[in-house]
Amino acid sequence: MPNATPDPVTLAVLENRFRAVVEEMGEALLRTATSQILNSSRDFSIALCDARARLVAQADHIPVHVGAMPFAAQAVLDAFPGQMRPGDTFLLNDPWHGGSHLPDLTIVLPVFDGPRRDSDPRPAAPDHRDGNVDPDLVFLCVVRAHQSDIGGATHGGYNPSATEIWQEGIRIPPIRLGEGDTLREDLVAMLALNTRIARDFRGDLMAMWGAARLGAKRLQALLASHGAATLAAATDAILDLAEAHARRIIGGWEDGTWQGVALLDDDGHGAEDIAIRATVTKRGDSLTVDLTDSDPQTLGFVNSSWPNTVSAVRMALAYLLDPEVAKNDGAFRPLTVLAREGTVVRAAPGAAVTLCTSHCSNEIVEAVVKALAAACPDRAMGGWGRRFRIAIQGEDPRRPGRRFVWHLFHARPGGGGHAQGDGWSGVGEWHSAGGLKFGSVEMAEARFPLFFRRHEFLPGSAGDGQFRGGLGGELELVVETSGPARANTAGDGARHGAAGMLGGQDGAPHRYTLIPRQGTPRDLRTKETGVQLAPGDVIHVRSGGGGGWGDPARREPAARAADAAEGVV
Amino acid sequence: MRAPYRIGCDVGGTFTDVVCIGADGETLLAKAATTPDDQSRGVLDGLGVLAGMLGLPLPDLLAATERLVHGTTVATNALLERRTARIGLLTTEGHRDVIEMREGLKPERYDLRLPPPAPLVPRRLRLPLRERLRADGAVAVALDPASLEAAIAALRAEQVQGVAICLLHAWRDPSHEQAAGAAIAAALPGTYVTLSSDVLPQIKEFERFSTTVVNAAVGPIVAGYLGRLETRLAEAGLRAPLFVILSHGGVAPVAEAARLAAGTALSGPAGGVAAGLALARAGLGADLVTFDVGGTSTDVALISGGEAALGRGRMVGGERIALESLDIVTLGAGGGSLAHVGAGGMMRVGPRSAGAVPGPACYGAGGTEPAVTDANLVLGYLDPARFLGGRRVLDLAAAEAAVARLGATLGLGMLACAAGIHALANVAMADGIRVATVRRGVDPRGFCLLAFGGAAGLHASAVARDLGMRRVAVPLLAAGLSAWGMLQTDLRYEVARSLVGAAGLPEEPALRALFAELEASARARMAEWMDGEPAIRRSADLRYGEQVFEVGVPLDGVDWPAPGLPAALAEAFHARHEALFTYALRGEEVVLVTARVAAIGRLPSLPAPAQVAGEPAAPVATRRAFVAGALRDLPVFAFTELAPGQQVPGPAIVESDTTTVLLLPGDVAHLDARGWLEVAVEEG
Q1: Do residue B427 and residue A325 have CB atoms under 8 angstroms apart?
Q2: pTM confidence score
Q3: Which DSSP state fits A223?
Q4: Inter-chain contact B427–A16, Cβ cutoff 8 Å?
């Protein structure tokens, strides 16, 4: 039943409304979540998909989530063909069933046209058009949030020792977590039992469910006022406009085929210089990103799941388009992504993948941007930083008997330079692009036995160029625990810095050094468990700067003079 | 109007509004053009217009004035236009980049080519002091005089106008900051010096440093401006004190506004919220959404249970100001917002604005793109001959041409395009209010929409309908309501102190001592400003053990003298958490982060205007306007001629010299004798 495109005003109204709905869902989740990773670091995303799992609207949260969310919607449609009912709630996290990596839980809530029939669940009526889709299903509200713990062998979700996914946490294929507007307590209890902080898990799950239900409520109101046919026609038109917008921009780029390569340091299990190879072909207003030649999958957890790889490529495209392009299914239609199973960008079922939303996502983005730098030089930017996390556990002498876990978010790496100017300093990595926040040093010192002797930008860390990268950070962190403490690391980029673009130089790589109070300093590796710490030890973090853009010889003398005066080189 | 007079003066982007209330309650509104280069000239011009309306020489008017309250946008404009003072920052060695790091956050997630903002202090003027306190206040490194000497020499060489001194953990012990401040005051006399331990003595260095740096950056400018204004007013004959309305909605003497200049960043819109609070008290109802539609933006605030929410997360011009301030949400949609076809091919309204110059196409000053005001004119909602009481004649043909041009690119006729622009502006406003209310856990449907500012009356009914709000109120003084509101608010002084380190809540004696100390300091300050007993309001920022965000908890309901104060605080927090987030964790440890005390010095309340009884007014004209999809002849009523209680059914237009109200079919309006038009909105 083709519908006439709504008039421009109705269309604009509905486009605003869809965006307002996802933004409101995001606000609700931020306000109600219980774990620090959600309510402070904001590691969650919201999407609205239509009944064909097409991304209609998203709120600007974490870029690496966004292109992957439709996979979750599709996985639920595939698992429950024609079997969804009003009041149902679905949940998943498994990377081979619509997820990206296990710590990201995703709730999918269907929205139906017509009055609710809670007491009269409809029979599973197969759709006469394609046999799969309930004819009354209109939207899917998708809420994804990173959990502070998801079970598995180590606390906090990141296990550098893992060589298979079963060591990384509990796997959840699409399940019907609730029906009749109620969650199944037996399932919630089973999941909570498999995580270390059941209270956070339950609180965050309620917050996610609440956000999804709020979205459904707003969409029901829109259905009542405009009707399903108008909303469907508006959805088509919104996606088509975004597609046309993206194609207009891509069409302005030079045709050709280019290769971009980005390297990971290692997988923590012996593989080194793991290559992501992107062959990008641009013809007319379409792009093909072929990752087939990337290195074989690794034993360690830097492998990417397929949804995460597609999302990383979409993220790269989104960065190269104008920021105004609506990030929906239409905008990504000009893009085809190819990869071979068994490679690091499309790991076979069962592989360890937890680091993939950081690594190799960051390298996938970088390889694609490098390849396209020739096609759209004024849009390509120098590389953004890599992620290198540390988690410290120990005991605070001021709070005897209570153990703490502290996650490093300070001393963020730099962003890349670009044709319009120098990069941002200390705003982080490709995959979050300034969307993650570090906490107050004063608060951290008050709450944890840590002393931040220095926390500043790191002069000289940026990649030089006509426009230089942003600066990385420097942190001298003194451990003041009451006794021995332990640290884990998870990350990459200690050998390969953020890439310079179009003649710009690479940013400095990360260098994290452990300076024991007694003994010899040593550099920390990016994938270590059980690092022994003692009171008085210093962790000296020097995080990488962003990559430069363009030939350094063309940098304005005034800019060099300003850099010197500002003490950043 | 009888003396003595009380005068409120609000400087807007285009007009300076002066409202005068006489001893008999009579109220007058005078307008003059704003003078952006020195706002004090526009203020004097406005006072001159007012004197003319009263038939008095200006010196006589000022001599008979007993209070003058001023709202200024000097600090706001300096921040928005990046014309701040040349300043230096003295900070703890090893931590000089706090204000530029911005906690690692960057706006506009998908704009990786966005230029980073220039910090208010360049890095070379962020000078390290060798010193360090620990989290418990212990001195880890004593203040090194040589590093202070070196910093002073650098500041002298750069001829800075202001200095911010921001040291880690200084909220706990200000002595290093005070020593540095004294040394600078001695070495660089005339320099504006401000300490983080004075501006915002609470934990979290980014908020405290950023606020203090903003204070240094606007302080010299605000202090200079207010000094000039005070001098001009004194020369013109004013003998009464000049007060300034601050971002928290209370007023303070000029010296305090100059000391805490960052606290004037919302001085402009604060008057509108103060007006909302006054109208709530006057009987409009305890739950209001203030809806102030100006030329380039719309300010929205919530009044719930007769109270305006305060927050500390304010950004102005990209700079964080963590002082207590009214929770005003600014939307990029106003009468000057321009309609266009966005890059994606979608019809858009705003955020670009025609501004005051050239203004909408109908101003005839060269604007060619259609603004919301152009659409409203094309739709017949405005009378081209009577805009602003006839002070500006609108060019209908220019508006029609601009709207028709846009319509042609979208395949829309002129009227349909104008109706679309109007509808999209309504949607932007309604969505903004929805986010502003729902984000705070408030369902707007039980609220009354208080519409004021030049253009709110044309959008209020449609916006209310969209939100499911059943009541709209438009004050007769809509166009000058902010200035009026400044006369309805009280003196206010805020003081706060953090208390972090020890787990949980302090023991009862320590808790009482903390609040008592704050109260004493607030009372002492208020005693300098006025005679009489101030009201004391206490609140606290509390959180559960492992949380990172505190919740501000008003403690007015706590029985203060009763024993068991820590438990009472904890219970107040549980209840607040439950109300906000649907649950409380009563078994969990409760942590006090910051204690707050506000002293409020009540100013004498002003007489209300006398009721005017009269015959129901007949329409003064008929106007052809496009409403609900069709052109209709609408009756036009003169706002000032309506009799109290007179009912006006929609569709209709009610207008005065300075505001126009569009009533939609199904609406029923009546004039409330207390000075506002109340509209019962048909259920949407």
Answers
A1: no
A2: 0.90
A3: H
A4: yes
